[in-house]
From TrEMBL:
This is ABC transporter ATP-binding protein. Residues 8-256 form the ABC transporter domain. The keyword Transport applies. PANTHER family: AMINO ACID ABC TRANSPORTER ATP-BINDING PROTEIN (PTHR45772:SF7), CONSERVED COMPONENT OF ABC TRANSPORTER FOR NATURAL AMINO ACIDS-RELATED (PTHR45772). It comes from Niallia oryzisoli. The keyword Nucleotide-binding applies. InterPro entries: AAA+_ATPase, ABC_AA/LPS_Transport, ABC_transporter-like_ATP-bd, BCA_ABC_TP_C, P-loop_NTPase.
Amino acid sequence: MTTNQPLLKVDHVGIQFGGLKAVSDVNIEIKKGELIGLIGPNGAGKTTFFNMLTGVYVPTEGSILLNGAKLNGLPPFKITQKGISRTFQNIRLFGELSVLDNVKVAYHSLAKHSILSSMLRLPGHFAGEKEMEDKAIEFLKIFHLEGFKDEKAKNLPYGQQRRLEIARALAAYPELLLLDEPAAGMNPQETHDLMELISFIRDQFNLTVILIEHDMALVMGVCERIYVLDHGQLIAQGTPKEIRNNPKVIEAYLGEEVS
Ligand SMILES: Nc1ncnc2c1ncn2[C@@H]1O[C@H](COP(=O)(O)OP(=O)(O)OP(=O)(O)O)[C@@H](O)[C@H]1O
Protein backbone atom coordinates (compact mmCIF):
# COMPACT_ATOMS: atom_id res chain seq x y z
CA MET A 1 0.00 0.00 0.00
CA THR A 2 1.41 3.39 -0.93
CA THR A 3 0.23 6.17 1.31
CA ASN A 4 1.55 9.48 2.49
CA GLN A 5 0.05 8.91 5.91
CA PRO A 6 2.81 8.95 8.52
CA LEU A 7 3.14 5.89 10.71
CA LEU A 8 3.22 8.13 13.76
CA LYS A 9 1.75 11.60 13.99
CA VAL A 10 2.17 13.54 17.20
CA ASP A 11 -0.01 16.60 17.05
CA HIS A 12 0.46 19.45 19.53
CA VAL A 13 1.08 16.98 22.36
CA GLY A 14 1.88 18.05 25.87
CA ILE A 15 1.57 16.98 29.49
CA GLN A 16 1.39 18.85 32.71
CA PHE A 17 2.20 17.43 36.15
CA GLY A 18 0.70 19.83 38.68
CA GLY A 19 2.35 23.13 37.84
CA LEU A 20 5.08 21.58 35.68
CA LYS A 21 4.71 21.39 31.91
CA ALA A 22 7.03 18.46 31.32
CA VAL A 23 6.30 18.35 27.56
CA SER A 24 4.70 21.11 25.57
CA ASP A 25 3.25 21.44 22.06
CA VAL A 26 5.29 18.69 20.42
CA ASN A 27 4.66 18.01 16.73
CA ILE A 28 6.33 15.01 15.12
CA GLU A 29 5.67 13.00 11.98
CA ILE A 30 7.50 9.77 11.37
CA LYS A 31 7.29 7.68 8.22
CA LYS A 32 7.29 3.93 8.17
CA GLY A 33 10.82 2.55 8.19
CA GLU A 34 12.56 5.62 9.57
CA LEU A 35 15.21 5.38 12.27
CA ILE A 36 14.79 8.44 14.44
CA GLY A 37 16.83 9.83 17.32
CA LEU A 38 15.35 11.79 20.22
CA ILE A 39 17.93 13.72 22.18
CA GLY A 40 18.01 16.47 24.77
CA PRO A 41 19.62 17.36 28.08
CA ASN A 42 18.64 15.59 31.32
CA GLY A 43 15.07 16.32 32.33
CA ALA A 44 14.13 17.56 28.82
CA GLY A 45 11.06 15.30 28.71
CA LYS A 46 12.28 12.45 26.51
CA THR A 47 11.14 9.56 28.71
CA THR A 48 7.90 11.39 29.48
CA PHE A 49 7.33 11.57 25.73
CA PHE A 50 7.84 7.78 25.40
CA ASN A 51 5.50 7.31 28.36
CA MET A 52 2.80 9.21 26.47
CA LEU A 53 3.36 7.19 23.29
CA THR A 54 2.97 3.95 25.24
CA GLY A 55 -0.04 4.89 27.37
CA VAL A 56 1.81 5.14 30.69
CA TYR A 57 0.80 8.81 30.78
CA VAL A 58 -2.21 10.34 29.05
CA PRO A 59 -1.31 13.63 27.36
CA THR A 60 -3.13 16.63 28.76
CA GLU A 61 -3.11 18.23 25.31
CA GLY A 62 -2.91 17.15 21.66
CA SER A 63 -3.27 13.77 20.00
CA ILE A 64 -1.11 10.80 19.10
CA LEU A 65 -2.03 8.87 15.98
CA LEU A 66 -0.62 5.53 14.83
CA ASN A 67 -1.56 4.78 11.23
CA GLY A 68 -4.21 7.47 11.56
CA ALA A 69 -5.86 5.93 14.65
CA LYS A 70 -5.84 7.85 17.90
CA LEU A 71 -3.93 6.28 20.77
CA ASN A 72 -4.51 8.76 23.60
CA GLY A 73 -6.31 7.19 26.51
CA LEU A 74 -5.60 3.57 25.55
CA PRO A 75 -3.95 1.45 28.24
CA PRO A 76 -0.36 0.28 27.63
CA PHE A 77 -1.28 -3.33 26.71
CA LYS A 78 -3.69 -2.11 24.01
CA ILE A 79 -1.00 0.13 22.59
CA THR A 80 1.39 -2.83 22.50
CA GLN A 81 -1.24 -4.79 20.59
CA LYS A 82 -1.60 -1.91 18.16
CA GLY A 83 2.09 -2.12 17.37
CA ILE A 84 4.25 -0.07 19.71
CA SER A 85 6.75 -1.73 22.03
CA ARG A 86 9.58 -0.32 24.03
CA THR A 87 12.57 -0.82 26.25
CA PHE A 88 13.17 1.11 29.44
CA GLN A 89 15.89 3.40 30.67
CA ASN A 90 16.21 1.23 33.77
CA ILE A 91 16.19 -2.35 32.58
CA ARG A 92 12.92 -4.08 33.46
CA LEU A 93 13.49 -7.77 32.96
CA PHE A 94 12.02 -10.55 35.07
CA GLY A 95 15.30 -11.26 36.85
CA GLU A 96 14.26 -14.58 38.36
CA LEU A 97 12.92 -15.93 35.05
CA SER A 98 15.12 -17.55 32.46
CA VAL A 99 16.34 -15.60 29.47
CA LEU A 100 14.04 -17.70 27.26
CA ASP A 101 11.00 -17.09 29.46
CA ASN A 102 11.60 -13.35 29.39
CA VAL A 103 11.09 -13.43 25.64
CA LYS A 104 8.16 -15.86 25.78
CA VAL A 105 6.32 -13.67 28.26
CA ALA A 106 6.38 -10.82 25.74
CA TYR A 107 4.39 -12.53 23.05
CA HIS A 108 2.23 -14.75 25.19
CA SER A 109 -0.74 -12.54 24.43
CA LEU A 110 -0.08 -12.93 20.71
CA ALA A 111 0.08 -16.74 20.78
CA LYS A 112 -2.71 -18.53 18.97
CA HIS A 113 -3.59 -21.17 21.55
CA SER A 114 -6.51 -20.46 23.83
CA ILE A 115 -6.41 -20.16 27.60
CA LEU A 116 -8.81 -23.08 27.86
CA SER A 117 -6.64 -25.45 25.84
CA SER A 118 -3.69 -24.31 27.89
CA MET A 119 -5.53 -25.08 31.14
CA LEU A 120 -6.57 -28.50 29.92
CA ARG A 121 -3.13 -29.13 28.44
CA LEU A 122 -4.67 -30.11 25.12
CA PRO A 123 -2.42 -30.91 22.15
CA GLY A 124 -3.12 -27.44 20.79
CA HIS A 125 -1.44 -26.02 23.85
CA PHE A 126 1.73 -27.99 23.22
CA ALA A 127 1.77 -26.94 19.59
CA GLY A 128 1.41 -23.35 20.81
CA GLU A 129 4.15 -23.78 23.41
CA LYS A 130 6.53 -25.35 20.93
CA GLU A 131 5.89 -22.63 18.39
CA MET A 132 6.41 -19.98 21.06
CA GLU A 133 9.65 -21.55 22.20
CA ASP A 134 11.02 -21.86 18.65
CA LYS A 135 10.18 -18.25 17.92
CA ALA A 136 11.70 -17.06 21.19
CA ILE A 137 14.90 -18.92 20.37
CA GLU A 138 14.97 -17.27 16.93
CA PHE A 139 14.89 -13.88 18.62
CA LEU A 140 17.58 -14.92 21.08
CA LYS A 141 19.82 -16.03 18.18
CA ILE A 142 19.61 -12.61 16.56
CA PHE A 143 20.91 -11.14 19.80
CA HIS A 144 23.52 -13.90 20.34
CA LEU A 145 21.78 -14.90 23.54
CA GLU A 146 20.63 -18.43 22.70
CA GLY A 147 23.57 -19.92 24.63
CA PHE A 148 22.19 -18.33 27.81
CA LYS A 149 18.57 -19.31 27.30
CA ASP A 150 18.27 -21.24 30.59
CA GLU A 151 20.21 -18.73 32.65
CA LYS A 152 18.30 -16.41 35.01
CA ALA A 153 18.03 -13.00 33.36
CA LYS A 154 19.53 -11.30 36.41
CA ASN A 155 22.75 -13.28 35.95
CA LEU A 156 23.49 -11.89 32.51
CA PRO A 157 26.10 -9.16 32.22
CA TYR A 158 24.58 -5.71 31.91
CA GLY A 159 25.15 -5.28 28.16
CA GLN A 160 23.43 -8.58 27.46
CA GLN A 161 20.48 -7.67 29.67
CA ARG A 162 20.01 -4.59 27.50
CA ARG A 163 20.06 -6.77 24.38
CA LEU A 164 17.57 -9.17 25.97
CA GLU A 165 15.22 -6.26 26.62
CA ILE A 166 15.33 -5.39 22.93
CA ALA A 167 14.74 -9.05 22.01
CA ARG A 168 11.68 -9.09 24.27
CA ALA A 169 10.33 -5.86 22.78
CA LEU A 170 10.79 -7.28 19.28
CA ALA A 171 8.98 -10.48 20.20
CA ALA A 172 5.73 -8.49 20.41
CA TYR A 173 6.11 -7.86 16.64
CA PRO A 174 5.92 -4.08 16.88
CA GLU A 175 5.64 -1.72 13.95
CA LEU A 176 7.21 1.00 16.05
CA LEU A 177 10.02 0.17 18.46
CA LEU A 178 10.96 2.70 21.14
CA LEU A 179 14.39 2.32 22.69
CA ASP A 180 15.12 4.34 25.82
CA GLU A 181 18.89 4.74 26.12
CA PRO A 182 19.73 1.30 24.70
CA ALA A 183 23.50 1.87 25.00
CA ALA A 184 23.48 3.08 28.60
CA GLY A 185 26.20 1.31 30.55
CA MET A 186 27.68 -0.36 27.49
CA ASN A 187 31.35 -0.18 26.57
CA PRO A 188 32.38 1.31 23.19
CA GLN A 189 32.60 -2.08 21.47
CA GLU A 190 29.16 -3.12 22.77
CA THR A 191 27.77 0.26 21.69
CA HIS A 192 29.23 -0.18 18.19
CA ASP A 193 27.76 -3.69 17.91
CA LEU A 194 24.41 -2.39 19.15
CA MET A 195 24.36 0.30 16.46
CA GLU A 196 24.78 -2.34 13.78
CA LEU A 197 22.16 -4.52 15.42
CA ILE A 198 19.58 -1.73 15.53
CA SER A 199 20.05 -1.05 11.79
CA PHE A 200 19.85 -4.77 11.09
CA ILE A 201 16.61 -5.37 12.98
CA ARG A 202 15.04 -2.27 11.45
CA ASP A 203 15.65 -3.75 7.98
CA GLN A 204 14.93 -7.35 8.93
CA PHE A 205 11.60 -6.65 10.67
CA ASN A 206 10.42 -3.64 8.63
CA LEU A 207 10.53 -1.62 11.80
CA THR A 208 10.30 2.04 12.52
CA VAL A 209 12.55 2.95 15.42
CA ILE A 210 12.78 5.92 17.77
CA LEU A 211 15.70 5.90 20.13
CA ILE A 212 16.52 8.14 23.05
CA GLU A 213 20.23 8.22 23.57
CA HIS A 214 22.90 10.27 25.23
CA ASP A 215 25.67 8.56 23.27
CA MET A 216 26.02 11.04 20.41
CA ALA A 217 28.24 8.72 18.36
CA LEU A 218 25.41 6.19 18.36
CA VAL A 219 22.68 8.69 17.56
CA MET A 220 24.65 10.47 14.86
CA GLY A 221 25.92 7.20 13.41
CA VAL A 222 22.66 5.33 13.13
CA CYS A 223 19.75 7.79 12.93
CA GLU A 224 18.53 9.36 9.72
CA ARG A 225 16.68 12.17 11.44
CA ILE A 226 16.92 13.58 14.93
CA TYR A 227 14.51 15.54 17.12
CA VAL A 228 15.81 17.64 19.99
CA LEU A 229 13.82 18.33 23.14
CA ASP A 230 14.81 20.98 25.65
CA HIS A 231 12.70 21.91 28.69
CA GLY A 232 9.80 19.96 27.21
CA GLN A 233 9.86 21.79 23.88
CA LEU A 234 11.02 20.63 20.49
CA ILE A 235 13.84 23.02 19.62
CA ALA A 236 15.22 21.38 16.47
CA GLN A 237 14.82 18.57 13.99
CA GLY A 238 16.93 17.49 11.06
CA THR A 239 19.66 15.23 9.78
CA PRO A 240 22.58 14.45 12.09
CA LYS A 241 24.67 17.03 10.24
CA GLU A 242 22.01 19.72 10.60
CA ILE A 243 21.59 18.94 14.29
CA ARG A 244 25.32 19.02 14.95
CA ASN A 245 25.53 22.52 13.50
CA ASN A 246 22.29 23.90 14.92
CA PRO A 247 23.06 26.86 17.25
CA LYS A 248 19.99 26.16 19.45
CA VAL A 249 21.15 22.58 19.99
CA ILE A 250 24.68 23.66 20.75
CA GLU A 251 23.32 26.15 23.27
CA ALA A 252 21.04 23.57 24.93
CA TYR A 253 24.02 21.28 25.30
CA LEU A 254 26.40 24.03 26.37
CA GLY A 255 29.27 22.31 28.06
CA GLU A 256 28.19 18.91 26.78
CA GLU A 257 29.53 17.21 23.71
CA VAL A 258 27.29 17.27 20.62
CA SER A 259 29.55 15.71 18.00
N1 LIG B 1 5.06 11.42 37.05
C1 LIG B 1 5.65 12.61 37.12
N2 LIG B 1 5.28 13.54 38.02
C2 LIG B 1 5.86 14.74 38.10
N3 LIG B 1 6.88 15.12 37.29
C3 LIG B 1 7.31 14.25 36.37
C4 LIG B 1 6.72 12.94 36.23
N4 LIG B 1 7.37 12.30 35.22
C5 LIG B 1 8.32 13.15 34.75
N5 LIG B 1 8.27 14.32 35.44
C6 LIG B 1 9.13 15.48 35.22
O1 LIG B 1 9.14 15.76 33.84
C7 LIG B 1 10.41 16.28 33.46
C8 LIG B 1 10.97 15.49 32.31
O2 LIG B 1 11.46 14.25 32.79
P1 LIG B 1 11.94 13.07 31.84
O3 LIG B 1 12.32 11.92 32.70
O4 LIG B 1 10.95 12.84 30.78
O5 LIG B 1 13.25 13.70 31.19
P2 LIG B 1 14.32 12.99 30.26
O6 LIG B 1 14.55 13.91 29.12
O7 LIG B 1 13.90 11.60 29.95
O8 LIG B 1 15.59 13.02 31.22
P3 LIG B 1 16.84 11.99 31.35
O9 LIG B 1 17.69 12.19 30.13
O10 LIG B 1 17.50 12.46 32.60
O11 LIG B 1 16.26 10.63 31.46
C9 LIG B 1 11.29 16.29 34.70
O12 LIG B 1 11.25 17.56 35.27
C10 LIG B 1 10.59 15.26 35.58
O13 LIG B 1 10.84 15.53 36.93
